[in-house]
Amino acid sequence: MLKLSALTVLLVLGNTATAFAACPSAVPGTTVEAIRANEQRVICLQREIANNSQMQKYEIEINRLDTSIQRLELQRRFDNLPRPMPIPVPVTPKF
After folding, report:
1. CA-to-CA distance for 83 and 66, rounded, in angstroms?
2. What is the pTM of this model?
């Protein structure tokens, strides 16, 4: 459970780091231009995070499918193993 929580935090931090790199930096000030620029920056950040989240969903789905394929291949290999012959039980005739 702890690993899952740590992985989630890392994924969120990774998403925001790439989003900050792709979008313009914040513009200081309270002028109309600064506010518009910051609004566009927020929209850009939201789009980048949405795109990254979608890509992560795809990666998770691909990993899940890959695991399923590996499980099926392993099951097929197991099914193709030679089966031991049953040992016949000697029958003694009763008179």
Report:
1. 28
2. 0.55
